[in-house]
Amino acid sequence: MEVGIVLDAGTSATGLHGLTELFTYAGQMAARRQGQVALPSLRITHWKSEPGGSCVTCTYDSSAEAHHDLVVLVLPGNLRATQSRSRDEVLIAWLRGMHARGVVIAAVCGGVFILARTGLLAGRQATTHWALHDQFSREFPDVLVETDHMVIDYGDVLTAGGVLAWADLGLRLVERLFGPGVMLDTARYMNIDPPGREQRFYSDFDPKLKHGDSAIARAQEWLAGQRERVISVTELATHACMEPRTFLRRFTKATGMKPLEYQQRLRISRARELLEFTRASVNEIAATIGYEDVDNFRRQFRRFTGLTPSGYRQRFGAEARESYAPLVTAAAS
C-alpha cells in the first residue's frame, strides 16, 4: 500500500518528517507480524506542487517502483495556509481528482484549510487547531467546525487538530491499514498515546473581545476578575449601565454565548489553574469558584474539558510536572 504526504513551502517540517517516520515504523511493525498474519507492506511517498507549476510531482519514494497506487494522502500542518486565502489551483484540482479515484484525503491543523478549499468538507464536521476555530468558521461557513475533537474521521476524509495531532491522525490511519495490533505496536515504539485524546484537554477559554461593542468588552474585562463567584445578569447590567434585557441581548450577540455559559467557562478556567498550581482538594476548589454542589462542579468540568478534575490534575498538575524534573535536571547536567 502507498501512503503519500503532500507538502508545499508552508508545510510543517515536524509533521512531514514525523509522519514519514511513523509510517516507516508501522511498516516495520507490520513486517514483524507477517509470520502470524499476512499484512501488506507500506510504501511512503512525498508529493509537491511547485509554485507556478502545472502538476504535482513525487519528490521522495521509499520504493523503487515506477507505478503509483495511492490509498491515502496526508496534508501535514501548514501555518502559511492559514495566513493567506490564496489557492494553489493545481494542488486543489489534484487532490479532488485523487479523492474521486478513491484515495482517502487527511489533513492536520493548518493543512485542513487546504483540504477545505477543495470543497470536500462542505456540509461535514471538521476539526483544526482550537485557536483557529473562529478563523476557519469565517472562511468556510459551509463546514461545521468541532475543535473539541482531535480527529474526525468520515472514512474518505479525515481532519486532525493541533500541529502535533499528526501523531493521532497517523495512528488512526495505521489502525485502518494494518489493524489495532500494528497501531499499538507503533504507538508503544514511539512512546506516544494511542488515539483517544481530545483537544479540549489542552484548549483554554479564549473569549471574543474584538467584537466592536465597547460596553460589553468592559463588562468582560470586569468579569475576568470575578471568576470565583456567580454574578447575576442584573448585576452585570448595572455594572454596564444598561437594562438587563438590553445587556443580555448585546452580550449574547457580542460573545456568542449567554452570560451564565460565559461565566461557567471563566470559572472552569480558574479551576484548571487551581488544579495545575495548587494542592487544594477538588471540594475546596469547587467551593472557591462558587460551586456549592461538588458533583455539579465535576460534571461541568468534564463537560468543558473532557476530563474529570482528578484526571486533569494527574495529567497537568504540579505532581505531573515534578515527575519530569529529574529528566530536566539530568539533561541540564
Automatic annotation (TrEMBL):
| Tagged with keyword DNA-binding | yes
What keywords is this UniProt entry annotated with?
DNA-binding, Transcription, Transcription regulation
- Any matching Pfam family: HTH_18
Query: What protein name does the entry list?
Result: GlxA family transcriptional regulator
- InterPro entries, per the entry: Class_I_gatase-like, DJ-1/PfpI, Homeodomain-like_sf, HTH_AraC, HTH_AraC-typ_CS, INH-QAR, Tscrpt_reg_AraC-type_HTH
PROSITE patterns of this UniProt entry? HTH_ARAC_FAMILY_1, HTH_ARAC_FAMILY_2
- Where is the HTH araC/xylS-type domain positioned along the sequence? 217-315
Asked if RNA-binding is a keyword of the record, the answer is no
